[in-house]
Design goal:
Length: about 80
């Protein structure tokens, strides 16, 4: 993955700061609230990049009765650090 939008970087950086790595997860809808202040086009791009991060395995998901929970893949931390810098 070469680069991601500003909104996706915001989410990834915040997950890193909260140490949401490995089995420590958070509801996805809470993560997506962190980018609600972005303009409409930026928000759309951030959501597309977020789904791409999930699809490529940078962000892992865990199904829960209340919805999908997310956390960072501990094996791909080096790539995540490159994206957020």
């Amino acid at each position: 993955m070469k680069s991601v939008s500003v909104g996706c970087v915001i989410i990834l950086r915040r997950l890193l700061n909260q140490k949401r790595i490995g089995g420590k997860h958070i509801p996805e809808n809470l993560c997506l609230r962190w980018i609600k202040h972005l303009p409409k086009t930026e928000h759309k791009n951030a959501l597309k990049d977020w789904e791409r991060c999930i699809k490529e395995g940078l962000v892992l998901t865990k199904p829960k009765p209340s919805g999908r929970h997310v956390f960072l893949n501990p094996r791909r931390l080096a790539e995540i650090y490159q994206l957020v810098q």
